[in-house]
Predict the structure.
Amino acid sequence: MSESETRYDLQYLKSVSRLYPNISATATEIINLRSILSLPKGTEHFLSDIHGEYQQFEHVLRNGSGAVRRKIDDEFGDILSPSEKRDLASLIYYPEEKLALVKKAGVNMDEWYAVMINRLIRVCKNSASKYTRSKVRKALPKDFAYVIEELITGRRDLANQEDYYNEIIRTVINIGKAPELISALCNVICRFVIDHLHIVGDIFDRGPGPHICMDILQKYHSVDIEWGNHDVLWMGAAAGQEACMATVLRISAKYGNLDILEEGYGINMIPLVQFALNTYADDPCDCFKLTYTEGDYDIKNAYYDRKMHKAIAVIQFKLEGQLIKRHPEFHMEDRLLLDKMDFEKKTVVVEGVEYPLLDTNFPTIDPKDPYKLSDEEADLVEHLKNGFRNCEKLQEHTRFLLRKGSLYKVFNNNLLFHGCIPLNEDGTLKEVTVYGKTCKGRELYDRIEQYLRRGYYAIDPEEREKGRALFWWSWINGDSPLFGKGKMTTFERYFIADKKTHKEPKNPYYTWYEKDETVDMILKEFGIEGPDSKIINGHIPVESKKGETPLKCNGRVLVIDGGFSKAYQPKTGIAGYTLIYNSYGFLLAAHEPFVSVRKAVEEGLDIHSDTVLVEQVTKRQHVADTDVGRDIQEQIDELMALLEAYRKGRIVEKA
């Protein structure tokens, strides 16, 4: 018996033979798979810390961080002028809007359709060139699959086919289907320039449309998500964890984004409005001013939002205190601060130091039992929790995050995660105890993730409660790899003027990740070796305007949080980093803020991006060099064993 046969037992090969019942079918599939291995590696696109900025997010997805413009340049070189290239790019990004604008301009539409369809076909053909015809066919929209396949595979340069090719385009225009074909071609181009999308955490928080971002991701052809701290916070809220829910509401109120919950998810906010207005009617709520971008927020809502902001913040601190007391294993007693307030002296003691309070109006706090909800607060929390638990759209988004997401991912020999690998001050992996088991590194990630999934899916009430509590722990605890800081000083930022108390010390990871030996240790911990492997993560905004670079450890670590969120842009000086990994190497793009869809359509105004080559491979990478290629090679090995079994008569061919 040959080596290939001995790797697979006969029963297994017989099960494979149901798909490939004879020598001919088996040989054909081997030929097909081996040819796929020789194709160029598909392009990966990495985004991080989107924070609900849906317009910028959608535009970066559609332009592929400049990949579409590169395809246009590759195909047309100097044949088209810069303005013609801009028009073609804006058409690809926003076909419906561009078509409407062109029609208003009064141009000869039939001529314009013919020119643009021909240009789009060339870009589409270029974009699809690294895929098999089978993969291309599967990606085409059903209504135009035949037409597009004929147009991008036909040989227009051959006299026998030129009339056929031109007649397809003329007929499409004559029967009034040109707009639909153009839209289909544009969408196919955007699909082909990016083979796989990685979201390295934090879809939620701050920006106005995380629910829109989630809707977009649900339709994306190939995506994985590495959960961020804000993502697990929303997942915890959806699972019914009350402290997570209150924190989601507080942050939404702080950034003037309660519309996300009411209009985006249909969760009724009226009880919160009524409670806040009744409880804090005469309170100016000066400590609860809102953070928003001019023009993005209706200032008329500020009066109500500030009161809701304070109401839910007080509830959050109470719920967190209850949770800390229920889970002493979290070791977060230093965050119990409501009982450290002296209402007569109007002070609070933090880490042994007494500070004056900036706000002393707390009508719902009982000094004798400060963490107990008032009856009205308890009713409000129950109502809101029912709203979160019964919101089908939020539950659908959460299930999508659980299906497509994880705490980390090893992909094509790179390690992706949000936040940090918890380290000690000496740079060694930090041991953390999670529900009785002490672990570190990869084992720590795996244990946390198991409990987070139980927090949503577990039937056993005790296991479900542990998992739900760990959603909140992952958001806020100093040992959480998603948080990456020693403590979260939300209370101090609201109520204490001394900014020394506001500091949130970073985990030592953010010092040690500049050292080769640390990067080697982390990669090896996750089963990755080799000089070309990288760590890709976000979470801590890179302050470009201060000269900070996203490239750490000579480019072995890439931190791609550059300020997608408008709230971070004054700090970072840009509007986000994104990363492209194609068959030639890594490209890092630093984006300027996205202006608007209208500007993009009317003026051909794309996001200005400064793209730098992080690393160029010495040899162009092919599918054989990827995780997909390794899976394909395993299939080939199985089929070779099956082929040999057929030829030796160990398995009988079928018709």
Summary: The two ends are 25 Å apart (CA to CA).
